[in-house]
Design goal:
β6 and β7 form a beta hairpin. This protein has 337 residues and is an all-beta fold. The protein folds into two domains: 179 residues, 7 Propeller (Methylamine Dehydrogenase, Chain H); 150 residues, Neuraminidase (6 Propeller). 0% of the residues lie in helices and 48% in strands. The strands form eight sheets. Strands 4-5-6-7 form a four-stranded antiparallel β-sheet, with no helix packed on it.
């Protein structure tokens, strides 16, 4: 399954697509009324998934969520989201019924975090630490143990002072939070922009993203935690790594990271990384020529992975959707346009 939004031909509609042959062929599901963009999806089983994003209501943007219980063939809109949610950017489901989602609030000074233990039919609004206005990633190893990454105010109560990285953890499903120690040391120049968060085991967690300094040249960024997200250390990616957009870890030791895209100067950059050491060491892998950037990856086993993104095209948008598939754990890839 894959979720997102339709673009130039049919603007303003979410889209969900399903493949039953490993990504070779895809079928779009019927667009759901009201939902305009789906940003993230979590599947606790092969058939049970929840996707989150936003919808336009009049002149406002409100949080939106949809769910499926039949592997993406049919989707239902979750209509009971709290009105205080403006947009949901990330979701993690440790079981088919238990999920945590994070995003932005209608109150611009506060972020939004929600939990459900009823497959999305009932949500509980969580209180986040003061100043945490933009939580963007969440990963839950269990229904109670979760990590949230985002940004917080450098000076509490003064948004004009800027923001800094914030990582918080909970062991009681978000009733209380503990601030983690952000990674320090050999980080690339520029503000960190983390885009992927995963915990291959209860104690081992990985954050991936990039940092872009003033000259506009991005540098890949990887951070690892060995204590469940309480402390973090930077991990050196292979030389030349640029954009890192998504990560999947089918085992406690094997992970795949995909990325790439268009940098500030208009140059196309491609990235696929793999590790067999739980994220301690990474290897850069060849990227198919038809791929410009990959935004998401999922691995059903240590060998079988599928990534989605975009490649070059002569269409008005300048790009077209692309699917890349690997049968050897991310070492080699074939593009399926």
């Amino acid at each position: 399954m894959a979720v997102g939004a339709q673009g130039f031909v049919n603007p303003g509609h979410e889209i969900a697509a399903v493949s039953t042959d490993g990504g070779a062929h895809w079928a779009s599901t019927t667009p759901l009324p009201g939902v305009t963009h789906l940003d993230a999806m979590a599947c606790a089983t092969a058939s049970s998934c929840v996707a989150v994003g936003s919808e336009v209501v009049g002149n406002d943007i409100m949080g939106a969520a949809v769910s499926t219980a039949d592997g993406g063939r049919t989707w239902s809109t979750i209509s009971d989201l709290p009105k205080s949610v403006a947009r949901l950017s990330s979701i993690s489901c440790s079981t088919p019924t238990s999920c945590m989602a994070v995003g932005t609030s209608t109150d611009q000074d506060r972020g939004a975090a929600l939990t459900t233990d009823a497959s999305g039919s009932l949500w509980h609004v969580l209180s986040l630490p003061d100043g945490l206005s933009d939580p963007s990633l969440v990963s839950c190893e269990t229904a109670h143990t979760c990590i949230v990454e985002g940004t917080k105010e450098v000076v509490l109560g003064d948004p004009s002072a800027g923001k800094e990285l914030s990582i918080i953890t909970t062991s009681d499903a978000g009733e209380t939070w503990t601030s983690s120690t952000p990674p320090t040391g050999s980080l690339p120049q520029g503000a960190p922009n983390f885009k992927g968060l995963v915990c291959p085991s209860q104690m081992r967690c990985l954050l991936i993203g990039d940092a872009t300094p003033g000259d506009g040249t991005p540098s890949g960024l990887i951070a690892a935690s060995a204590d469940g997200g309480k402390t973090w250390v930077p991990v050196a990616p292979p030389p030349g790594t640029t954009f890192l957009n998504a990560i999947a870890c089918p085992t406690t030791t094997n992970c795949v990271v995909v990325g790439g895209g268009i940098e500030a100067r208009g140059q196309s950059v491609q990235d696929i990384l793999t590790t067999s050491s739980g994220g301690q060491n990474w290897v850069s892998q060849p990227v198919p020529a038809a791929v410009t950037g990959l935004g998401s990856v999922s691995c059903t086993s240590a060998s079988s992975c599928v990534a989605v993104g975009y490649g070059p095209s002569t269409s008005p948008s300048g790009s077209q959707p692309v699917v890349a598939r690997s049968a050897d754990g991310g070492t080699t890839w074939a593009s399926l346009q």
